[in-house]
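From the pipeline queue, job 12 of 40. The input is one protein chain; the requested action is below.

Action: predict structure.
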Amino acid sequence: MNYSLRYGRFRALLRQIREEAGLSQTVLAQRLGKAQTFVSKTELGERRIDFLETLDFCAACGVPVEQFMERLKKSAPTDPKTKTAKRQSPRKMDRDGRLTKR
C-alpha cells in the first residue's frame, strides 16, 4: 500500500514505544487481546490502525496518549508547506519509518 511519510512516522513511533516498553509483538498482542500478526501488520503498514486502537496500543505500552501525540508532533517536518511523497509500504523499516536495505 502507498502511505505518506507522515503515516510512516506514526507507525515508527508505535514500534518505538513498544520497544521502549520492553515488549515483544507477541506480549503486546496478548495485552491487546489480538493476534501477534495484528501488531506486526500495524507496524509494517499492512493494516491501518484507528484512533481507538491507538489509544489501546498506547495504554498497553504504558505511554499516555498525550505523550504519544507530542512525540508524533515533534517528529513532523518543521516546514508545514513541505510536500511529502507517497511511497510503497516497506516490509522492513527503521525507527523513522524509512525503508531499510535487506
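Job complete. The mean pLDDT is 86.
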